[in-house]
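[Q] Does anyone have a clean structure-token version of this?
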Amino acid sequence: MPDQEKRRSSSQQGLSWYWAWLIPVAMGVLALVAAVVVETLHDKVQNRNQAQTSLKELEEEALHELYAQEEALVQRQVTSELAEEISEGRRERTELLKELERSDPDERMLDEIRDTLASLEAAVDEEFRLIGAGRLQEALAVEGQQADPSYEKLEELLEEKDEEYAGAARRTAMIADAGTFAVVLLSALVLATMFRLYERFRRENQEVLERSEERFELAVRGSKDGIWDWNLETNEVYYSPRWKEMLGYEDHELQNRYKAWKERIHPDDLERVTRTLEAYLDGRSPHYELEHRLLHKDGRYRWVLTKGASVRDGKGTPYRMSGSHTDITERKKLEEQLQRQATQDPLTKLPNRIVLLDRLGHALERSKRREENIAVLFMDLDNFKIVNDSLGHEVGDALLIAVGERMRSCLRPGDTVARLGGDEFGILLEDISSVEEAQRTAKRIAESLRTPFCLEHREVVVTASIGIASNISFPGHTEDLMRNADVAMYRAKNKGKAHHEVFDPSMYERALERLEIEHDLRRAIEHGELSIRYQPKVELATGEIYGMEALARWEHPENGPIPPQKFIPIAEETGLIIPLGRWILREACRQAREWHELFPEIPPLNVSVNLSAKQVEYPGLVEEVAEALRESGLKPSALELEITESVFMEDTTSATALLRQLQGLGIQLSIDDFGTGYSSLSYLKRFPFDYLKIDRSITDGLERDPRNAAVAEAAITLAHALGEKVVAEGVETEEQLDRLRRMGSDFAQGYYFWKPLSAEAASEVFSKARERQNGLVPE
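[A] Here you go.
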């Protein structure tokens, strides 16, 4: 029952308030409507006054036209200035009439004024015509009979209309004044009623305010943020229980003074907090919000987000300030972690490329001001992929970490070493005396890497190629130095690895040339601009061709022939060797099959194709060879693959498996360029080769250098002992040929026999051989 009575009382109170507020609202609406009406009446009065002004201007313009007519009579001519003045006046009268039409609905009177004006203008025009013709007497007659009566009639119409406007304006003004008085009276009644209602409302809502403050207190206690309320005049601060709890204190442990807050601010943040607070209280900053650290009871600092707002007196002086503290320690930890991830290599904990570029940029700026020298070193580990593939990625990662530590030990405290990605590192040397100092640093790093790394109970030895770029000889921007060091590093790697090179402009020119060749080579492969030349291989015992080596040739549409030694290494580095080698293999197999069909009388030819290191590493090599044989119909025994000996020294297990798979197809295998690489006797025994090819560098010195002759003879003897046949490359003289025959070489090729031939030229050779049937060695 008490609840029902309370609800009924609340309902009745609400209804009472409804009617109490309805009366002043209705009166206010009525006053508003009256005000609108009064405003409308005032607008009408204003319009009438404006219309009167327009009438006077209209009359003046008409009178002005009469004066112009009299001036023309006096001058006995109508000047162009006078005609223009008349035209301008008529245009102004047209505008005045349009204004009158908008403000006056009395069309009849306006039509009459318009007609009278037209008569006046017609009379003036006629008078001007007569003056222009020199008929002055007739012009005077027109003035007296037409122009003057028209003007007098216009004057009467305008005076009549003016009196009408003046009367209407007076009546409307009286009504507007009465309305204004009514609006003022209604407004006073509304204000008086609303003031009484406000007093009643204030008294009745005092209890509501007290309950609201109680709810606020409960909200403060339940909030996750710490609330503070600062009396700036007494320096007393109310700290909510949660504020103290955030710092590990009980509610009674901290004094309600600003000192309790200030003395717990981190020393590094105190000045910034004080400066921000003063700027806000002085009015120099519209907001008070910042992040800083507060000392926890356990001795550690917690990050808080502080927000506050002040209450000011009439002079703008703050006397109270309230706000909150939000614990953002976890967010700060996450931000720091993200910052580390953005600037630190997660594996080696070294700075990353972003940091190196940033420090290099600042170093360059300082070098300009202080005239200091700096250098950038790019380092790439040689054959790191072998470590990764053979020992696993965990060992590879451990090696990168260890390399980073050794590099740091070789540098000064102010230098920067960063991991750029993969097995690439960057080094920034600041304030160096010369490029030689950078070179000495590169040598220290290379020397430190020679000591084996002990990883997972294994000793791993690694070398590095290092490129050096400095602002001493070639100043530039950040990107320039980084690019120059990168170019120098690739130059060092191309010179045989385990080297360091200092950048010079010719390297950049070569890099640009290499980039152009790469671009053009890619296009050439796509558009079929390459061709194959075939160099015959001759059996020395019979003088007959037993095979053809397929050699890629490139005729550039603009630059002419591009040597293979120039574009093949680029194809190897960029991976273009895969599609290029695939095309050579297919085309060579197809051509060999065609020769077999065209020249069945000659001994079966084999065709040999060179395989690069990239092709040997390519997972689909065996399938591509099988596909080329299947597609062309060539017998597997007629295909010979030539592989450089150094390819197999990096991963013997995988190499052996690959060779077994290739030999399983029925093809033949050759060791290419024997004598230029490792030339290990153990792999000759382990790998299943059919041919051994002596490199042209050995053949070239047979007649001059006894050591070359000894190497060639030993290679031939060894190959025969292992059941392999020998092919000598680069035979150019008869003396070389005789020496090779005496040593027991089985086959030879070179310019002494034939230069590489096009497929058509080779077919011509076979045709002549068929006709002669007496061997193919030139007479």
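[Q] Thanks! Anything notable?
[A] The longest strand covers residues 301-312.
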